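dumping this here so i dont lose it
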């Protein structure tokens, strides 16, 4: 008999447990009838063991069912959702080991309460269908959780970058030129880099790069800025230097095939960012900046410009360094895309460290609070563009106090035109929870030039009555008030004698 897969062991174990309970047999009773030890039966039902044919026949006889019924891998309709989950690759694709979770423990939960777990899984699948959640959403969600668990800092990747620089004799001086990185890819990894290589393919105009592994051709979008070009080259170096085999061949993942692909993409991004923004010099510059007595937006942007970094690279590095070296562990990162054609805002990237912070994405098509610096600065950039003024970057600091909570954040936002996508602007924000650690680290925190605003998550959920920036009526908050009024009236009626 060939070795059984994990899914076959799990389904067989569930089937044995289902039949044993249907026959109202205890472990010891089935053990005696089948001539197998209680501990061995327990291992079978947990999906850890798959017995040989002679033992299966003994179990079939003890359960009073045909051999074929016990081995056909079919579960009854109450367990159909569980069987569908187990037969899919979903459990195997989940990065359980990264979170210190054993697959057998998950199986044990399923085996202990299969009907309840089946109902729970059915609920999740129904929700995922209603909200159009594809498999890759789970992969990206798992990645965010993994990054958050490690405060988005990985010493092994930091050391890999340092080893690479030493091997290639790259000095501490930054920025690294496009020519230097292209030369490494060509000489060490036999790449052929084709500038403006996507020009002939209109469908690919919004991609930054495409890698053709058979030819080792890297096709670059001709509209990339020099900063974006060096970042893409850094990612390609990372895939090779870190020996990351399972990977996407486009600059961003269009459809994730596995969690390993998503994780490797994240590692390549981290490597490229750390390569362009070395931690030691970056830490020193941040210390100098935070010791300033007043907020200086130009000085903030100057740090980024010294590394020829994009705002996304700059903010990625901030999320690596601030928790690890400045003790700023409670922070969030958001990226918004402002579609100028329809004046809509979409949050396409977010990260929350230490806890789930108030500003977060929603799939409910609600209007994000226009008081966020992330939104207002993007609107200001668009106003300047309509006046015929070209502005590549603008920065703003804001203290944001979340209505109905004690939480207040110091937010740094940068807005820029989107490249290569036309008719769009992008804003990136990092928000730092104001606490004793932040007060100790940032000297300009109480600078009166930094505006302070009361903010909320979405307009639909905001109780502010005098908000001039409101983009939508507060339907959700009004519905809650109405329900509460009904409940209050019912309570009074119940109390009347």
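and the seq i came up w/
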């Amino acid at each position: 008999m060939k070795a059984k897969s994990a899914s076959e062991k799990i389904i067989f174990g569930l089937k044995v447990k289902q039949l044993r309970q249907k026959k109202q047999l205890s472990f010891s009773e089935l053990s005696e009838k089948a001539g197998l030890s209680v501990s061995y039966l327990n291992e079978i039902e947990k999906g850890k063991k798959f017995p040989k044919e002679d033992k299966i026949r003994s179990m079939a006889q003890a359960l009073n069912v045909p051999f074929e019924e016990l081995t056909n891998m079919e579960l009854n309709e109450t367990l159909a959702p569980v069987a569908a989950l187990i037969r899919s690759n979903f459990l195997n694709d989940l990065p359980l080991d990264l979170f210190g979770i054993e697959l057998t423990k998950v199986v044990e939960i399923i085996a202990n309460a299969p009907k309840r777990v089946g109902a729970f899984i059915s609920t999740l699948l129904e929700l995922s269908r209603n909200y159009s959640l594809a498999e890759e959403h789970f992969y990206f969600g798992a990645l965010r959780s993994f990054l958050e668990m490690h405060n988005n800092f990985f010493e092994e990747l930091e050391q890999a970058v340092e080893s690479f620089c030493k091997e290639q004799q790259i000095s501490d001086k930054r920025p690294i030129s496009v020519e230097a990185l292209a030369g490494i890819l060509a000489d060490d990894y036999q790449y052929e880099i084709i500038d403006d290589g996507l020009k002939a393919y209109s469908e690919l105009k919004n991609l930054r790069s495409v890698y053709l592994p058979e030819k080792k051709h890297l096709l670059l979008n001709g509209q990339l800025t020099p900063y974006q070009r060096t970042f893409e080259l850094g990612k390609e170096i990372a895939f090779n230097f870190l020996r990351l085999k399972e990977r996407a061949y486009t600059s961003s993942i269009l459809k994730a095939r596995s969690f390993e692909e998503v994780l490797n993409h994240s590692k390549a991004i981290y490597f490229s960012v750390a390569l362009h923004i070395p931690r030691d010099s970056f830490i020193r510059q941040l210390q100098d900046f935070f010791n300033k007595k007043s907020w200086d937006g130009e000085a903030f942007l100057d740090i980024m410009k010294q590394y020829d970094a994009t705002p996304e690279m700059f903010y990625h590095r901030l999320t690596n360094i601030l928790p690890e070296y400045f003790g700023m562990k409670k922070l969030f990162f958001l990226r918004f895309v402002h579609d100028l054609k329809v004046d809509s805002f979409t949050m396409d990237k977010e990260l929350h460290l230490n806890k789930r912070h108030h500003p977060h994405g929603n799939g409910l098509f609600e209007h994000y609070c226009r008081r966020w610096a992330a939104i207002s600065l993007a609107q200001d950039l668009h106003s300047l563009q309509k006046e015929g003024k070209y502005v590549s970057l603008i920065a703003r600091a804001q203290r944001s106090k979340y209505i109905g909570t004690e939480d207040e954040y110091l937010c740094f936002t940068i807005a820029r035109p989107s490249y290569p996508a036309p008719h769009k602007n992008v804003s990136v924000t990092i928000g730092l929870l104001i606490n004793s650690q932040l007060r100790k680290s940032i000297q300009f925190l109480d600078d009166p030039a930094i505006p302070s605003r009361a903010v909320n998550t979405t307009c639909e959920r905001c109780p502010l009555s005098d908000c001039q920036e409101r983009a939508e009526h507060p339907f959700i908050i009004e519905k809650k008030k109405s329900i509460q009024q009904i409940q209050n009236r019912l309570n009074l009626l119940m109390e009347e004698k």
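Residues 475-495 form the longest helix (21 residues).
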